[in-house]
Amino acid sequence: MSDIIQTIVISEHGSTCELIKLYLQEFEKFSFLASTPDFSKAYEALKELRTSLVIVDISEYQEQALNFVSKVTAEIPNCRAIVLSDRPNVDLVIRAMRIGASDFVSFPVIKDEFFSILEKHYLDMSGQKPKKSKCRVISVYSNKGGIGKTSVATNLSLELAKITKENVALIDLNFQMGDVTTFLDLKPSFNISYMLQNLDKINEDFLLSTLERYRNTSLYVLADPPYFKQIDNISVKDISKLFELLRDVFSYIVVDMSNALDSRTMQILENSDLVLFVSIVNLPALRNCQRCLELFEKSGFSDDKIQILINRYMENDEINADDVEEVLGKKVYWKIPNNYFTMMSAINKGVPVSEINSDSNVALSYKNLALMISDSIFKKQLSNDEGRFNFVKEQ
Fold first, then answer.
1. How far apart are CA 206 and CA 74, in angstroms?
2. Rounded to whole angstroms, how far apart are CA atoms 286 and 288?
3. How many domains does one find in the chain?
4. pLDDT for 258-269, tens place per residue?
5. Can you give the pLDDT at residue 8?
6. How far apart are CA 62 and CA 43, in angstroms?
7. Given a cut of 80, is residue 10 above it in pLDDT?
8. Which tops the pLDDT comparison, 243 or 158?
9. What is the reported pLDDT for 395?
10. In this structure, what CATH number is given to the domain that contains residue 51?
């Protein structure tokens, strides 16, 4: 039988602590260890526990409480955090989940709902729950070269890793002209050909030790094949199998795609959760984009899956975002501003743009894009769970 998981409750209100204590005693799989309003004492106690749950009431001292949740979940790997609040709203729930909370519970705490949450976390923490991938595959595609999709893929993937603190895989599937390792100044020991030849050996440890980790982040890079002759041995079936394995280990997979529209490309796009179709604002690029969108529609891709991202956008350009939407018959999902000198400096130095100037308009745009993509997952979860929240409207 799995060990009972020790639990600490943090709240300014004794009645809340007593209620949670009674619920934990009745549930039995979690052991009530202590309650305290002191974040420092709780942190020191949690560090000593092998596996633990902390339940944090953020109704008072909200910022301090959220900072505590962020610190605990980042620094104590085997600790899960459940957040309580008497005034939940959508933005607050998303923020709490983004910084590391495993769940969010609104007052009054309903016993049956609370037990359901505890059961879910107990199965997960004790290793009894079958793995269900929550990974999201984001493919960055353009059917025209020189648009900047590699810049989008590399900067987006790093921002996702920084914001979510989860494992992110950046896969270079631009088999003939892959530049991901150049953009990040990496010299990986292994590439996708090696991975495909060793599919039977792949597990979490193998992936995390074989993919090239970018500096001290949770971003892992899988390079394109170094030799053209290796491309012929890469099959659609093997790529699909590799992605199945990657989904079990990574929370996000960002794919830098080839410009070609072959069977491999279509299969990857089919298996993607989101396709960022990168274009720039000029008539030839938009015409190419229009033709490709027609093909995707005929191929049965959903309208939500394919999203338009305009790169090197200038507000005072002759063609604006409204014109683009009219030509394509589709809303623009995101605009990356034109900042030639900052981007070229990043590319020439082999670093993400945030390392050149984190306050530049283009660096902030990538950060906000990553925030929007990660938040959309939480919003989808909220739409499924909205019935158990008593949301308070913002004043």
1. 23
2. 5
3. 2
4. 888 877 888 889
5. 96
6. 17
7. yes
8. 158
9. 46
10. 3.40.50.2300
Give the pLDDT of residue 265: 86
The token pair that represents 207 in the structure block: 């992936």
Residues 277, 142 contacting (CB under 8 angstroms):
yes
What residue numbers bound the domain in which 255 lies?
Answer: 136-382
Which residues pair with residue 213 across a beta bridge?
220
Q: Please report, for residues 22, 185, 250, 255, the alpha-carbon distance to residue 149 in angstroms, rounded to integers and kept in the order given.
A: 54, 17, 21, 10
Domain-located, residue 209: yes
Same domain for 39 and 88, yes or no, is yes
Residues of the chain with pLDDT > 90, as a percent, come to: 58
Domain for residue 387, yes or no? no
Residue 46 in any domain: the answer is: yes
Give the H/E segment covering residue 197.
helix 192-197
- Compute the average pLDDT of residues 227-256: 82
Kindly give, in sequence order, each residue whose CB lies less than 8 Å from that of residue 118, ignoring residues fewer than 6 positions away. 23, 24, 27, 29, 30
Please list the residues that pair with 219 across neighbouring strands: 168
Same domain, 316 and 351: yes
Q: In the sheet where 274-279 sits, what is the strand order?
A: 212-213, 219-222, 168-173, 252-257, 136-141, 274-279, 306-313, 332-337
Half-sphere exposure of 244 (CA within 13 A, CB side): 10
